[in-house]
Amino acid sequence: MTMTPSAADLHAHNQRISRMLADPECVGELLLVGIGMARCVDLSDPPWGDNGAMPMKTLAETLYGRRWLPTSFVGVGSLSTTADSNPYRRIRSLFYADRRRYSATADGDRAWADVTCGRPMVRRDGLCGRSASSNARRLTDPATGQRRWVGCCSQPACKQWFTDLLARNAAELAANPVPEPAANTGGVLERHLPEIDWWAVWRRVDPQWSPPPEGRRFERPTLRLLVTDDDLAEAGVEPEPRVRPALVALEGGWR
Ligand SMILES: [Zn+2]
After folding, report:
1. 18 and 96 housed in the same domain
2. pLDDT tens digit string along 123-147?
3. How far is residue 65's CA from residue 253's CA, in Å, rounded to a whole number?
4. pLDDT digits (tens, 9 = 90+) for 171-225
5. Is the CB of residue 106 less than 8 Å from the CB of residue 80?
6. Which residues make beta-bridge pairs with 54?
7. Domain of 150?
């Protein structure tokens, strides 16, 4: 049974939504899903079960209904541009794109096509700078684990410099364990909805995922999303009937 929210609940909810709206990374479909989840957490709409769990299918249907969805995320330029048209799999793909991780692209690395020759010049300051897109590699920095595009142009001296650099880099990587780079992207919904056990969600949507170095303390969350039907059956959770309308998606808003 959904309770009527108290004034304090509504106030906390409004503050949470205000923080989301002020976050430049919480935009487009991430914002839509974030607002929908904030309703679940703050107003119990739809409610979490007694054991603090909610099947993700319930959440997906609340947010998207059962409609066929466009196959790209709406208004979220920094995420992967492809998404699933099925509501349940789509919310999985959104959580996958927002999983906390290190990304060389998010770190401001150049696109492959923009790589220029990195050989330092002898008679002048600076680098060669000619196009290197035909001979570029993404190298791992042995000191930080971060990855960067490096390349050379077609001049013999530059090619030799690059061959030597690759050999030196390979030797350095072989000699010492490379640190895992700190996370630099994803986790947008986590910072607005810390009540939810996101680590469990990210492990389910990406079996390769493990907590990246952050330098901050992990606090155990109180709410769980159940990611698969198997989970649902194991936990014996039945979605409670919704007594109030949830978010309403209007036709014509997609592009
Ligand atoms: Zn060059």
Report:
1. yes
2. 888 999 999 978 999 999 999 899 9
3. 14
4. 999 998 899 998 988 999 999 999 999 999 999 999 999 998 886 666 778 888 8
5. no
6. 225
7. 112-175
Q: What separation in Å is there between the alpha carbon of 233 and the centre of ligand 1? A: 61
- pTM assigned to the model: 0.77
Say how many Å lie between the CA of residue 149 and the centre of ligand 1.
15
CA of 181 to the centre of ligand 1 (A): 29
Candidates 228, 241, 205, 251; CA nearest to 55 is 228
Helices (H), 51-131: 56-64, 87-97
For position 245, what pLDDT does the model report?
A: 46
pLDDT score of 235: 52
Residue 120 and residue 98 in one domain = no
CA 109 to centroid of ligand 1, rounded, Å: 19
Say yes or no: 125 and 192 in one domain.
no
Task: Give me ligand 1 centre to Cα 119, in Å.
Answer: 6
